[in-house]
Amino acid sequence: MTNKTLAELSKDLETGSVSSVELTEDSLKRIEKNHSNLNAFITITSEMALQQAKLADNRRREGNATPLTGIPIAHKDIFCTKGIKTTCGSRMLDNFIAPYDATVVTKLNAAGTVLVGKTNMDEFAMGSSNETSYYGPVKNPWDLKAVPGGSSGGSTAAVAAGLVTGATGTDTGGSIRQPAAFCGITGIKPSYGRVSRYGMIAFASSLDQAGPLAQTAEDCALLLQAMAGYDEKDSTCVNKPVPDYRAALSNSIKGLKIGLPKEFFGEGLNKDVEKATREAIRVLEGLGATFKEVHLPNTHLSIPVYYVIAPAECSSNLARFDGVRYGYRCENPKNLEDLYKRSRGEGFGAEVKRRILIGTYVLSAGYYDAYYLHAQKVRRLISQDYENNFKEVDVILGPTTPTPAFNIGEKTTDPIAMYLSDIYTCGINLAGLPGLSMPGGFVNNRPIGIQLIGNYFEEAKLLNIAHQFQQATDWHKIETRPQNVDGVGLINPKGDSK
Amino acid sequence: MSISLEAIARIAHLARLPNENTRESHALQDDLNRIVKMVDQITEANTKGISPMAHPLDMSQPLRTDEVTDLNERDLLIKLSSKEEAGLYLVPKVIE
Question: Based on the number of CB atoms within 10 Å of its own CB, is A479 exposed (0-12), middle (13-18) or buried (19 or more)?
Fold first, then answer.
């Protein structure tokens, strides 16, 4: 069986050895075959995908193609897609057909990608396991008893199982990086403001950021190139030129200074995950990078700060779901208050309601200063920890998660245990820095990820390091792809699909 | 600081969420109290002289020229509601 990355398929499309229609048909076949196994998709857009594929093939014949033209991709169901159901993994939006496209969708459409479907996710992006979705949990393609991670679990599982070679995700506390680690693929959360949030259903507006999920750093670079850039429709989007991410991949990393936070290698880190991370360090040393211990002394406060700020912002953002203008409306409301309360009570799941309540509490009179305002100050301390270290090192490295993927159902009754899986990732969102997870090995036959954290707008550097690491290792390669899922294999219309 | 059932009822009303039935209320109270106990750790940090960080890049809202740029899409958008009539959203009577 031939195994291909997005970059390789792009080359095949360019040489004409495959057409977009063939790739799309193959992708749709694989998605259908694995639908009940993985539950990675909420909506499959077959008809539209085939129409887009035909247009992509025409565009290529006319000589107007980009590297992404004709490539089947999936969008996390948090991105508004015009005329297509957009649910955010929630009963609240089960009947919502988006009237417009998110900027991320518009940009990837303009590049000529083919949308095969909208992927499953934790409800309103609140979760770390894809178990809070109204549409049921997603399974990890490596081990169907395991979670894929969350909240971008569907997009991640779809890429890891070879149903698509690229997908979009979002990351508020780790929701691209943590599932990428759990499913053995590459994912990057760009700097805050790098990618437009217009049309991306808001969870926590000062933390949310969109990013790509794909097998390799090179594939992520191709996707991010199209996704990134200024958008005047998002007032938090930064007007800064987008560098050529692909061109930067081949830079040498000799002399690169990498910091290893003491706090990321302490209590709570699984010993085998640590071993795999230290092996990754050895590989990078072999490529010429140097390492030194650094300190992020407020790491232990990142989860508490995150679980004040994110719920506070979510309680505000989700106030728009009131049953009146769109979304779920309860039957026979007695009065306006009943309409609001029952629509929201019936439309939202338990985790979403928990976070709205926490957020409302920390913003309420008498508690605002002690919780929300104080958390914002501690947020600055966490950000300053990173700022201080970037005076001494170029990037920071550590494990993406303290353990490999846990089992479905293992942490659903203990919210705190679930929240702690984001211990190494959520501080990066608080600081607004870019973070990438790349495959770094296996523990108990489940993938683990290595996280790279960069300074503001240094996505190119992170992708470069990951690409160089992936030239020297095999963890990202399709040959290691799981074979335990029916019909799983990479998109290969000419060869055998297992 | 622990949250009483009365406080949960008050917060639920502020958030326009229903107050759960008794059995679910106690489970919710346990969950919320555990979360609050966890977030209480932030009080150990010394933030003297530190200003709050609302935006990770400390940016403020950019301004633009005061001119109309949005289209009137009322007919398109009103179709998203499950209860509308003559271009208006229908809700239960609010004026007694």
Answer: exposed
Amino acid letter, residue A378 = V
**Contact at 8 Å (CB) between A154 and A163?**
no
Torsion of CA A300, A305, A310, A311, to 10 degrees: 110
d(CA A326, CA A329): 8
Residue A361 CB contacts under 8 Å (≥ 6 apart), including other chains: A367, A371, B3, B7, B11, B32, B36
Cis-peptide into A151, omega within 30 deg: yes
Alpha-helical (H) ranges within A184-301 are: 217-227, 245-248, 271-286
Chain position carrying tokens 């949960």: B8
Query: Is A151 noted as a catalytic residue in this protein?
Result: yes
Neighbour count for residue A292 (Cβ, 10 Å): 11
Span A254-281, pLDDT tens digits = 999 999 999 999 999 999 999 999 999 9
CA-to-CA distance for A240 and A335, rounded, in angstroms?
49
Q: What is the largest CA-CA distance in chain B?
A: 57
Query: In A, residues 273-332, which contact B (CB 8 Å cutoff)?
Result: 298, 300-301, 303-305, 307-308, 315, 319, 322, 324-326, 329
Tokens at B87, concatenated = 């271009």
CB A185 within 8 A of CB A213: yes
Judged by DSSP in three states, A208 sits in coil
pLDDT confidence of residue A250: 97
How deeply is A305 buried, as exposed, middle or buried, from its count of CB atoms within 10 A (0-12, 13-18, 19+)? buried
Tokens in use for A94?
Answer: 């089960």
Q: Is A432 an 8 Å CB contact of chain B?
A: yes
Measured between alpha carbons, how far is residue A248 from residues A11, A173, A458, A487 in Å? 19, 27, 11, 35
For chain A, the average pLDDT equals 94
Query: How far is the C-alpha of A368 from the C-alpha of A386, rounded, in Å?
Result: 26
Look-up: residue for tokens 């990355």? A5
State both tokens at A101.
């496209």
Give the gyration radius of chain A's Cα atoms: 21
DSSP, res A129: S
Sign (positive or negative) of CA dihedral A290, A292, A296, A300: positive
Query: pLDDT-derived band of residue A335, with 50, 70 and 90 as boundaries?
Result: very high
Read off the amino acid at residue B75. D
| Interfacial B residues in 65-84 facing A (CB < 8 Å) | 73, 76-77, 80-83
Evaluate whether A482 touches A161 at the Cβ level (below 8 Å): yes
> How many other C-beta atoms are found inside a 10 Å radius of the C-beta of residue A46?
15
CA distances from B66 to A230, B61, B69 (A): 20, 14, 9
Among chain B residues, the shortest Cα distance to A306 is held by B39
Give dist(CA A305, CA A178) in Å, integer. 19
Reported ipTM: the value is 0.94
CB of A218 within 8 A of CB of A186?
no
Percent of all residues in chain A with a pLDDT value above 90, rounded to a whole number: 92
A76 is catalytic: yes
